[in-house]
Design goal:
single chain; Protein of unassigned function; five-stranded antiparallel sheet
Length: 55
Amino acid sequence: MVHDMSRWGVRLRLVGTERVPAEFQLTIDATEKVIGCETVWKNADEIGALTDLME
């Protein structure tokens, strides 16, 4: 679940954050947009990542 999203980054809530790689693609179903992401921080149920939306 996308918790927060801006031009610079995204905060995701999910179970199993340890399985998320350092770089990943996030697809927003409603718009079919694919966003490149780079993980910046993780905890037990959230991830913070930079996005390529600012390019």
